[in-house]
């Protein structure tokens, strides 16, 4: 089975190709550059290097958010277009879940995070059970300080990771003390290979109704809804 994985939900852009249970190719960059210009050439280059033609793909897996609104839309739109054109299944995976997979060797719970500005983060709580990554608390948008206070009450140690971790590390450490553990920089980038593995057996989405999971509205849309008295 050949699976193409696409993650453009944040600054880290990742493309991976999974063939017969192994990652045959993986492309990752962490650059503040336009994903809309770079992602299709990256897909084409990786597939050419791995000698895989589009018609040979069996599934597309995409990181569906949260993250950058524009970035999430780019990845989901490309994934939907490919799946529809090739008539193959499409599965969406939480961008936070992909990042949490980097903590698979940690003996505790995992809190991946992305910065959401104004002291807020996108995060969730995950843990491994018999080798499978499971959701302990659903993805959310929350103040980093409130999240740390909530996790402080748990018995388990918590591993935090993500490229935006340095922005919030001091607040988390101040509240949680030794209960908070911080992953090394080498674990900060979500890996598209993990995305492929997470999505290979995931239930397929309806391509026409599948939409990103932003968790919260873009600020402009939120203000517009407020002005229109919409909820």
What would your notes on this structure say?
- The protein is of the alpha/beta class and 231 residues long.
- It has two domains: 2-95 and 190-226, ATPase, nucleotide binding domain (Nucleotidyltransferase, domain 5), CATH 3.30.420; 103-187, Nucleotidyltransferase, domain 5 (2-Layer Sandwich), CATH 3.30.420.40.
- It has seven helices and ten strands.
- The protein has helices at residues 35-49, 69-86, 95-100, 144-152, 165-176, 192-199, 219-227; strands at residues 2-7, 12-19, 22-30, 59-63, 90-93, 109-117, 120-129, 132-143, 158-161, 180-182.
- The strands form two sheets. The protein has a five-stranded mixed β-sheet, sandwiched between helices. Strands 8-7-6-9-10 form a five-stranded mixed β-sheet.
- Helix 4 crosses helix 5 (165-176).
- The termini are far apart.
- Mean pLDDT is 93; it is low at 218-222.
**Helix content range:** 25-40%
Stated plainly, the CATH topology of the largest domain is called Nucleotidyltransferase, domain 5
Number of strands: 10
The best one-word shape is globular
Report the β-strand fraction as a percent range.
Answer: 25-35%
From the N-terminal CA to the C-terminal CA, the straight-line distance is 43 Å
CATH class bucket of the largest domain: Alpha Beta
CATH A-level architecture of the largest domain: 2-Layer Sandwich
The number of helical segments is 7
The average pLDDT score comes to 93
Largest sheet: 5 strands, mixed
Strand order across the largest sheet: 3-2-1-4-5
Order of helices and strands: EEEHEHEHEEEHEHEHH
Contiguous runs where pLDDT drops below 50 for at least 5 residues: 218-222
